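Supplementary Methods, section 5.1.

A reviewer requested that the exact input to the structure prediction be made available. We therefore reproduce it here, unchanged from the version used in the analyses.
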Amino acid sequence: MYGVLPTVQSTERTGRVWTAIGQLTSALVGQRVLVRARVHTTRATAKQCFILLRQQHFTVQGIVYVSDVVSKPMVRFTGNLNREAIIDAEGELKASPEKVTSSTQEDVELHIDRLFVVSDSLPKLPLQLDDATRSRVGGEQEESGPAGFVNQDVRLDNRIIDLRTVTNQAIFRLQAGVCRLFREYLMSEGFVEIHTPKIISAASEGGANVFEVSYFKGSAYLAQSPQLYKQMALAADFEKVFTIGAVFRAEDSNTHRHLTEFVGVDAEMTFKEHYHEVLDVLDKMFVHIFKGLRDQYATEIATVRKQYPAEPFKFLEPSLRLKYSEGVKMLREAGVEMGDEEDLRLEGPASFLCSVMRESGCPKRISSAIPMMYCKGDRV
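The structure derived from this sequence is encoded token-by-token as follows.
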């Protein structure tokens, strides 16, 4: 059976159960399943049609072939489906005779005998998702518009379609995972999550890099940082607080070091005797995040690396701690001229120090020295 379903009017609930594509594994082989997914691609011949179904960042291969329950018109109907149309497909899940490398569910395929269009799409789309997920190995510049790639302006003009790519789906889940793991660890350590104002009556960190907005009959400003409110919370005996929220800064965004808007993950805590108590918490927090991403988001990381190849992320447990004097010594031995009290956060020294650490076989992320303005004595 096949066709086009009428628009959902919420008149009834049939009790049917839809299975997520990510759950289609060998454990379900031999069972009938119903999936709702987008048509990613179709490839038809006279008597059969292969259809790649996509749901978020998971894909599975379906096959429709002429049989006692499937007619030639149904095969033609399937082959003529528009890409990105949403369909209900039902059939038996079978083990694939060989791995389907074009889908995430490599070991199974869905033998479809019922197919209905839930929501159709336009025959011609402004961008093809296969082009938008093409690996950029070789260093092609997206702005130059090489054949088979999607330019940034096309992506942004059609952001809804662009966000459907498996890579973007995975990136957003990784972002959510970082926030979840950040929140999870700090709450286990007794931190309290707070929500700070984003529209304020005065610039919080000077007036040069602040966005001014009209506020009824007066003016207001977009918050540049939650720092003041975190410190207020500590003075109010909260002791440990964190916040996740938008930060706005009127800075030139033409460099990689400046953004006009970003999501900040901020934590603040008191310490009893030594600021290393704070470093201990930060160390364990980062390790918790890194391990969580490695163990719980391996699928998403692998998906992103298909389009943006990168070496596996390495980290130590506990993290490497480098004294300021040790960092200065390493830089000088590598030929960098710098003073005893020069800020290691500056782009030149910081980047070079990371390169030196990588060449010596250490992980890419270290607990770097903190500026002189924050402490006295030997800094870590």
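The two ends are 69 Å apart (CA to CA). These observations are discussed further in the main text.
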